[in-house]
């Protein structure tokens, strides 16, 4: 059958979505240098693939998306503390600095944050993302029918890794072939084994193996989880359990995904009606203070604590005013202000420099690189609102 690119939000159904058809679809997106998302739906499962210039960036969704990410991070980053309690705190902090469209891929953003903090390496990121792709393509291979649609909206401004879809499809196809040859085709590796009849199992296996199986097979870990935990490939592990599954002494059951660390309610940009203001400052305290003051005055506010991501966020948001910290790691307010002013759409946008060193030399230098105003730290609510209103009024006069 022929595979074509649908218009945005239209859906196309493919029967028997084989590896060849997968390669054809993803090859078409690569050839067109597609930017945005491809959504694949099969029964109750939905996967979202993120693309940049036709190459794969990341994939989310599926039956066990949180387990998949958590399992790979723990396996490939053994020195990283990723218990769910600590993830909750990190994701909460991330939600305050990440642009709203990007935050739906919080796992990807967190990998980028850890890389910038030198907690993980590019090689570790590569292993996490590529193994996630292989698992997803494997799961897709178990679906008899899928529906796909594209959305040409780029949600990720940071490209941690550009992945060749064909290489991932080939690895998943090889794994799927081995899975079929082991007579496991009608069973999912996302199922969790549990010992249902321990007395019958005890008669079937040696005592040491019986003790191991009863300790491991509690219905809390999926076959994939167990494979990683005992460092054994998924096919041979599952095949070794198959005789006991067929006898009924061990059963494969569905279990819930791990709880997501997402905060209960995400702030949205539509909660305020006023102009959007972006604050670029590596200090969480300053960001919180500005958020409180500006939201009270009905302004929209987006804070960016990573100065290296500032330009990308500004281009996606196009704010009415920018607060810019003078001293930040990796760059400084002067350099960043100069870069912003060289972008045509920001030539007239008010830029307010934030600093704890309110000296004449700093003021002169800030003016030379295009700053509109200067505001000292710690921020004073009255001064913040005063400078915002004054600068936005000037901007309105220029536009008229």
Write up this protein.
The protein is 47% helix and 17% strand. The protein is built from 16 helices and 14 strands. It folds into three domains: 12-180, no CATH class; 189-253; 273-399, Response regulator (Rossmann fold), CATH 3.40.50.2300. The protein is α/β, with parallel strands linked by helices and 400 residues long. The strands form four sheets. It has a five-stranded antiparallel sheet with strand order 1-5-2-3-4, covered by helices on one side. Strands 9-8-10-13-14 form a five-stranded parallel sheet, with helices on both faces. The protein has a two-stranded antiparallel ribbon with strand order 6-7. The protein has helices at residues 19-31, 65-76, 84-97, 100-103, 106-116, 122-141, 165-181, 198-204, 207-216, 223-229, 234-247, 284-296, 310-317, 333-341, 360-368, 381-399; strands at 12-15, 36-42, 45-52, 55-61, 145-151, 192-195, 250-253, 276-280, 300-304, 321-325, 327-328, 331-332, 351-355, 373-376. The termini are far apart. Residues 265-270 have low confidence and may be disordered. Helix 6 (122-141) crosses helix 7.
Order of helices and strands: EHEEEHHHHHEHEHHHHEEHEHEEEHEHEH
Number of strand segments: 14
Mean pLDDT: 85
Ends apart, CA distance between termini = 56 Å
Shape: elongated
Q: What does the largest sheet look like? A: 5 strands, antiparallel
* Tally of DSSP helical segments: 16
Helical/strand content category: alpha/beta
* Strand fraction: 15-25%
- Low-confidence sequence ranges: 265-270
Topology at a glance:
Layout: E1 12-15, H1 19-31, E2 36-42, E3 45-52, E4 55-61, H2 65-76, H3 84-97, H4 100-103, H5 106-116, H6 122-141, E5 145-151, H7 165-181, E6 192-195, H8 198-204, H9 207-216, H10 223-229, H11 234-247, E7 250-253, E8 276-280, H12 284-296, E9 300-304, H13 310-317, E10 321-325, E11 327-328, E12 331-332, H14 333-341, E13 351-355, H15 360-368, E14 373-376, H16 381-399
Helix pairs in contact: 1-7, 2-6, 6-7
């Amino acid at each position: 059958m022929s595979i074509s690119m649908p218009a945005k939000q239209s859906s196309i159904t493919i029967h028997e979505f084989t590896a060849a058809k997968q390669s054809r679809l993803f090859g078409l997106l690569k050839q067109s240098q597609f930017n945005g998302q491809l959504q694949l739906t099969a029964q109750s499962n939905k996967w979202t693939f993120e693309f940049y210039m036709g190459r794969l960036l990341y994939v989310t969704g599926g039956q066990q998306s949180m387990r998949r990410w958590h399992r790979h991070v723990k396996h490939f980053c053994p020195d990283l503390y990723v218990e769910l309690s600590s993830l909750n705190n990190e994701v909460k902090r991330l939600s305050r600095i990440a642009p709203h469209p990007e935050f739906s891929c919080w796992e990807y953003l967190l990998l980028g944050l850890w890389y910038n903090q030198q907690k993980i390496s590019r090689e570790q990121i590569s292993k996490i993302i590529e193994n996630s792709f292989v698992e997803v393509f494997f799961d897709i291979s178990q679906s008899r029918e899928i529906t796909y649609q594209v959305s040409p909206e780029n949600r990720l401004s940071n490209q941690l890794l550009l992945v060749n879809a064909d290489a991932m499809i080939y690895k998943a196809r090889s794994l799927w072939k081995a899975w079929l040859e082991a007579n496991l085709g009608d069973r999912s590796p996302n199922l969790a084994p549990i010992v249902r009849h321990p007395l019958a199992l005890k008669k079937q296996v040696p005592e040491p193996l019986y003790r191991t199986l009863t300790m491991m097979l509690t219905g809390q870990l999926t076959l994939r989880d167990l494979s990683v935990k005992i460092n054994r490939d998924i096919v041979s592990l599952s095949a070794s359990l198959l005789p006991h599954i067929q006898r009924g002494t061990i059963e494969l059951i569905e279990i819930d995904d791990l709880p997501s660390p997402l905060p209960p309610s995400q702030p949205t940009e539509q909660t305020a009606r006023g102009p959007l203001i972006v604050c670029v400052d590596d200090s969480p305290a300053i960001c919180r203070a500005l958020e409180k003051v500006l939201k009270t005055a009905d302004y929209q506010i987006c804070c960016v604590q990573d100065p290296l991501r500032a330009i990308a966020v500004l281009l996606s948001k196009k704010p009415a005013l920018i607060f810019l910290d003078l001293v930040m790691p990796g760059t400084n307010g002067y350099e960043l202000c100069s870069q912003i002013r060289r972008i045509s759409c920001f030539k007239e946008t008010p830029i307010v420099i934030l600093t704890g060193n309110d000296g004449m030399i700093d003021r002169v230098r800030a003016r030379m690189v295009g700053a509109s105003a200067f505001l000292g730290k710690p921020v004073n609510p009255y001064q913040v609102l005063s400078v915002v209103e004054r600068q936005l009024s000037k901007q309105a006069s220029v536009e008229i």
